[in-house]
């Protein structure tokens, strides 16, 4: 495999009081080195669960029931917790949406930054402290040496998020997963964080998975975009193609619901209805109850994934007229 990350036919289910319910349904995708793949979709689409499965951080009632996750040809889906602990913070890192819940409130910033360096890089405490100062300086935190002795609550939201980025990048990971890391930040800080991730990505050559619902962020940072709905990948394309020629009605709905700052007269058309719950079995296409273009076949038979071009895939029966040989597996170049 030439890709940095390969996710193949992944299925994730949750054990609940209502039985075992599917949260992610047979999805496949890849990420290259120095590539940014944005995963978009409404809340409940499966974006974050997919990311957590790569990290080996699914909730205790969640299981990978099918498929595989390969990082640099190493199968992560079959690894035990102690094996994943050696990878997390080392080859594989994650920035969470809310740093106050991800950072330990009773430990200093310095302690939390030193820990991965001591564990994964075999640094002494003195070496790790010096490296921590350099990391904080790299992510734009003023007076970094003083910050090592402070606790998370003593920093602003933007500074805490920078600390999270510093921790995630401490060991120069091969793959960084960012789960809506700028949602709670104002637009100025958001832009700084996005620039920072992009600069560090170029510097150390890592692949990035960026989970977001903000199509403006997607347009700014993505190389490719994966659209999820109801636990499925329903469209995958490079960012220019997706914005210029969205094929799935759900993708079109996401783009139509974004305000146009250059055309204030543009009407915002929100997608009607809501995301189906995990225990809601929908025959055919899972989007058809909300789709303005739904046909009879959409209500009866699940669509395959159509390969529209070698880099553009859509899980929608509307593509049948253009493609006679559908592909059931999404691949990437």
Automatic annotation (TrEMBL):
Residues 5-255 form the ABC transporter domain. PROSITE patterns: ABC_TRANSPORTER_1, ABC_TRANSPORTER_2. Keywords: ATP-binding, Cell inner membrane, Cell membrane, Membrane, Nucleotide-binding, Translocase, Transport. GO terms for molecular function: ATP binding. InterPro entries: AAA+_ATPase, ABC_Ni/Peptide_Import, ABC_transporter-like_ATP-bd, ABC_transporter-like_CS, Oligopep_ABC_C, P-loop_NTPase. It comes from the Bacteria. Belongs to the ABC transporter superfamily. NCBIfam families: oligo_HPY. This is ABC transporter ATP-binding protein. It comes from Allobacillus halotolerans.
């Amino acid at each position: 495999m030439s890709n940095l990350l390969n996710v193949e036919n992944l299925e994730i289910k949750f054990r609940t009081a209502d039985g075992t319910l599917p949260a992610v349904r047979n999805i496949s995708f890849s990420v290259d080195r120095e590539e940014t793949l944005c995963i978009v979709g409404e809340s409940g689409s499966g974006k974050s669960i997919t990311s957590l499965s790569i990290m080996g951080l699914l909730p205790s009632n969640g299981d990978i029931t099918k498929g595989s996750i390969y990082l640099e040809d190493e199968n992560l889906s079959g690894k035990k917790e102690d094996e994943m602990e050696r990878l997390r913070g080392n080859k594989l890192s994650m920035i969470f949406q809310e740093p106050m819940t991800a950072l330990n409130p009773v430990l200093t910033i310095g302690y939390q930054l030193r820990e991965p360096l001591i564990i994964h890089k075999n640094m002494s405490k003195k070496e790790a402290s010096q490296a921590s100062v350099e990391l904080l300086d790299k992510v734009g935190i003023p007076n970094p040496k003083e910050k090592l002795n402070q606790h998370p609550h003593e920093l602003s939201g933007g500074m805490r998020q920078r600390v999270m980025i510093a921790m995630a990048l401490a060991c120069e990971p091969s793959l960084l997963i960012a789960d809506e890391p700028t949602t709670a930040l104002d637009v100025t800080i958001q832009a700084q964080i996005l620039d920072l991730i992009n600069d560090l990505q170029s510097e150390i050559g890592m692949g990035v998975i960026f989970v977001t619902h903000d199509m403006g962020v997607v347009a700014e940072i993505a190389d490719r975009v994966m659209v999820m709905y109801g636990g499925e990948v329903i469209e995958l394309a490079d960012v220019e193609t997706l914005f210029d020629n969205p094929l799935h009605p759900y993708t079109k709905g996401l783009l139509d619901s974004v305000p146009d700052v250059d055309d204030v007269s543009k009407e915002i058309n929100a997608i009607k209805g809501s995301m189906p719950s995990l225990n809601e079995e929908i025959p055919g296409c899972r989007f058809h109850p909300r789709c303005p273009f739904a046909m009879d076949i959409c209500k009866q038979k699940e669509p395959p994934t159509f390969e529209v071009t070698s880099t553009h895939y859509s899980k929608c029966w509307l593509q049948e007229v253009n493609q006679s040989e559908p592909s059931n597996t999404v691949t990437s170049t």
